[in-house]
Amino acid sequence: MTTIDAGVKTPKKQKISQFRRLLWHVNRTDLGWLTKAALTTLQPGARAKRAALLGQLPSKAEWSEASRNLDRDGYVDVSQLMDRSLAQAVATVADDKVSRLNELSDKQKLGHKSFWVSLLDEDLVNGAFATDHPFVRYALQPAALRIIGDFMRDLPQLSDVLLTLSQPTPDQALSYSQLWHLDHDDKRVCKLFIYLTDVQNTADGPFTFIPAGPSKPFRNTLKSHMSDAQVFAKTGPDAVKEMIAPRLSAFIVNTARCLHMGSRIQSDHSRLLYTATYIQQPRIYPEPPARFRAVGTLTELERTVMRL
Ligand SMILES: O=C(O)CCC(=O)C(=O)O
């Protein structure tokens, strides 16, 4: 019940939202690991069960090496390690969407990122993807789960899959993910990207990042989106890596550790990108509504990855 007492007592709802805001700030810093540890303790046995499922996945020396690189540098190029036919299936779906761009962008639920067009709305039922969708199948491939899982020492949770078409913004003013930021969805956030168009130079708006080591000074900052000047004052521009790579290149980045930005598309250019986002369970914030709906037979491992 809400208590109203001429400003003497704070209403309960307000207290909860103040508490949430405080927790949100705390979780963005290294103190968030305490939240993570506390939540993990509340689910005794769950982590060991997930680790056992991870152990059932096949392993390869090159996947282990990729996992170590992800741990050390915060990113790894996996173009040669991912299943090419699954990537091709993603590209086929994406190409079809782009060929119907006008039709789909008219239908798009308006978002805040004017330089991003979300093309997958028509594939969702109550906000959820079918588990046999090529975007989901790509994200569930053993190589991806093994590389990210060995880094997390836990079977990852697939949080989302996304297709984004980035286009030039009319006024060229940078906003949101065009500015430097860390992802704070959770303490470990690994994004698996596939370029679905060639990204040949800066004009194509490459995914651009600073590896984990030089990104460290920004770990406990409460600033959310920063300009080049703010970032380079601490790191210098030499730490910056631009992902310049051809269509179907794939890479994994721990976006909670590596400062990053992208989609700074110059006129007459555009960029099509697939993203699968993985976190480590249990999520430090309340679970959002289900993003996947079971279609066909799923293994226990797949169900656990998608929380189905
Ligand atoms: O558009 C880009 O390259 C940046 C994407 C990004 O910031 C993200 O996926 O977290």
UniProtKB/TrEMBL annotation:
This is Phytanoyl-CoA dioxygenase PhyH. It comes from the Bacteria. It comes from Bradyrhizobium daqingense.
